[in-house]
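Propose amino acids for all 283 sites.
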């Protein structure tokens, strides 16, 4: 029997419905700035999605598109300008950036209170300490997705494939926190664990964030498990997820090939931007 689908759209709609009155209650629209370096079509597409949603919600958008050969100094100058701009409450640098640039060094220059992605070391530190602050968007969206579909996470055996700093690693922190929508036993596997299928086959909830097309196939999944695909890969214009489509034949619940965690990621970005504005306006 095919798995039940867990689309991200209803989760995102619930987040937007919560944000709308909060946006209206502010003295001025929350400002979200985006920085794109280079001409990667996937990155440009992600930025367009974020700007479109920001406009629909009535946010003020600022954008800087730097050429692929921009210098680190050019990038830092844009970050500084957005740090100093009172109309900007939150900003993001679209990741990845060209290889000659240092993403982490640029991220360190972002005002942590304007960190829309929740990836500044100050905010990752807040996450470790369970102090409120901007939380990384994709992992926060996965927690919201599981909560929305009433997946029992607390006490469950969660396995995450991948320890990348935007997804797998912060997700492990989030899902092991002590609250009803988390509180799980979390295992993270990666290339240092060659027998990772031994772990994934025992997972109640399997979350895949490796960035390897179809790395997870039915034999890696416990029948009836909840499977969340976080990995997106492009073969030409076609999106190939980390979770092979055939996994739907064994899983109990699964995210769709498109319209899963990408949608909830944008919702969490909007939430981080609105909360940054609320903080800056003393709400
Ligand atoms: N939907 C969204 O909004 C969103 C947001 C962020 C990321 N993503 C997607 O999520 C994926 C991961 O992103 P990331 O930034 O976390 O990437 P990353 O930093 O490259 O991390 C990938 C992780 O997967 C592990 N891995 C790779 N190949 C493996 C293999 N064959 N066996 C076991 N583990 C393997 C790596 O292990 P090692 O650490 O040992 O190298 C690493 O920990 C990408 O496809 C990305 O596009 C999606």
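Proposal:
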């Amino acid at each position: 029997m095919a798995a039940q689908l867990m689309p991200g759209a209803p989760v995102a709609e619930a987040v937007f419905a919560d944000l709308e009155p909060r946006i209206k209650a502010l003295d001025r629209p929350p400002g979200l700035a985006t920085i794109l370096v280079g001409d990667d079509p996937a990155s440009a597409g992600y930025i367009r999605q974020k700007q479109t949603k920001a406009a629909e919600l009535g946010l003020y958008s600022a954008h800087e598109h730097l050429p692929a050969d921009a210098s680190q100094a050019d990038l830092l100058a844009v970050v500084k300008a957005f740090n100093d701009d009172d109309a900007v409450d939150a900003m993001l640098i679209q990741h990845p950036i060209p290889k000659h640039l240092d993403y982490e060094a640029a991220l360190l220059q972002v005002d942590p209170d304007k960190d829309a992605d929740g990836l500044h070391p100050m905010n990752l530190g807040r996450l470790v300490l369970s102090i409120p602050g901007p939380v990384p968007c994709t992992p926060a969206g996965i927690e919201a997705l599981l909560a929305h579909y009433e997946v029992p996470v607390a006490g469950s055996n969660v396995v995450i494939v991948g320890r990348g700093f935007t997804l797998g690693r912060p997700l492990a922190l989030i899902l092991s926190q002590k609250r009803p929508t988390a509180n799980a036993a979390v295992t993270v596997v990666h290339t240092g664990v060659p027998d990772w299928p031994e772990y994934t086959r025992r997972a109640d909830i399997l979350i895949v964030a490796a960035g390897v097309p179809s790395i997870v196939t039915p034999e890696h999944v416990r029948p009836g498990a909840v499977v969340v695909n976080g990995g997106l890969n492009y073969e030409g214009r076609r999106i190939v997820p980390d979770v092979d489509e055939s996994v739907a034949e064994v899983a109990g619940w699964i995210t769709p090939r498109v319209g899963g965690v990408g949608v909830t990621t944008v919702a969490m970005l909007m939430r981080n931007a609105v909360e940054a504005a609320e903080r800056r306006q003393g709400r």
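The CA atoms of residues 130 and 233 lie 32 Å apart. The pocket of NAP is lined by residues 138, 161-164, 166-168, 190-192, 196, 209-212, 215, 230-233, 261-262, 265 (CB under 6 Å).
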